[in-house]
Design brief:
The chain has one domain: Alpha/Beta hydrolase fold, catalytic domain (Rossmann fold, 3-Layer(aba) Sandwich), CATH 3.40.50. Helix content is 23%, strand content 29%. The chain has a four-stranded mixed sheet with strand order 1-2-4-3, sandwiched between helices. The longest helix has 15 residues.
Length: 95
């Protein structure tokens, strides 16, 4: 089954962007964590590393304060603890 979804999901009080691509949804999910607030390099995964789709369903995530998850972020929430908690919520969603 082919899948290509771009959507925002609620993550700890703000909407955060996911892009999920798969050639076979029975494959395990590989979550790409980019460089963090202010850096979005998810495009390189979707363009330069498409061979990963032979082995994985790929999920790229614009973390809090970045790219499609930039709007509505209070800079006081850009802490390691908050980013880890956000990652937990995103992983739970993907599962």
């Amino acid at each position: 089954m082919t899948l290509d979804i771009k959507k925002k999901i609620p993550v700890n009080g703000i909407m955060q962007r996911l892009h999920i691509v798969s050639n076979d949804t029975s494959l395990p999910v590989l979550l790409f964590l980019h460089g963090g607030p202010g850096v979005v390099n998810r495009h390189s995964i979707m363009t330069d590393h498409k061979d990963l789709l032979d082995s994985f369903t790929i999920a790229t995530w614009d973390q809090r304060g970045t790219g499609g998850s930039y709007a509505g972020v209070d800079v006081k929430t850009l802490t390691i603890d908050q980013l880890v908690e956000d990652a937990r919520v995103v992983v739970e969603y993907l599962c």
